[in-house]
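<amino_acid_chain>
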Amino acid sequence: MTEREQQRLLSVAMNLSLGVGVAMLISKWIAYLLTHSSVIFSDAAESVVHIVAVWFAWYALRITRKPPDAEHHYGHEKIDFVSAGVEGGLICIAAIVIIVTAVTKIINGVELERLDVGMWITAACGATNGVLGWYLIRSGKKHSSLIVRANGEHVMTDVWTSLGAVAGLLLAMWTGYLIIDPLMAILFGANIIRSGAGLMMISVNGLMDRADPVIEARARDVITQFCSERGCSFHRLRLRLAGHVPHIDLHLQVDDAMPMQEAHSLATELEDRIRDAFGARTEVFTHLESMTQPDGHV
């Protein structure tokens, strides 16, 4: 599959997420206005944040496609991490609003109406979002898009909130203890905070250029195998991720007697092999140096 086809499929995924998100937002607020339920309010409030986050992710997906320019020499892929951080932060804000609202309900008294209608609307929304979340996460992983995957994770938190809302309403209806409704909202608000914090941590690690141990081990294996075959060595291997694009650089040590042109060809061959392993967009930089007179770095 070409990169253009991948981007088209990712755009379809984000457009679908935005369209379904608007429909879910309207449905959930109708359910809340009918029931005045805290857990349904938590579901509806999370949907408001979801729409804002999806719009930002939709925008970020278009920015990340732009090639390097005079102001962004390394491209625009790091906006993936910015998008994940924004989405995680908005999720946490929504969770805090949910918890505060639920506590206020407990203090002031709980009043619920038309629980059966609200429950069915919420259940239908949860099922729809479950399918959407699975599709987004699958697409994001398949096409190495953190933006789409993070959006899918956000949708799945919405699914759990919907399930919690239905469970809370069922318990309230069966037992007659209406306080179960806001208590369930508090529990699911705490779970939403956990999910949002996870996305924010991914964002921080990416923006701080934290190395991925899996990618690093794989790169080291590829380079070690190449050097074993071609009689050279390497050191000072470094890597970082800009969105889903790996940037790898290393010092390639060659025999002192090797002509410059041959050494350059050897480095180019290694770079091509690394791109074969990690994708055509992988940035690879090699620094040539003598085996007997290395530059002193480790």
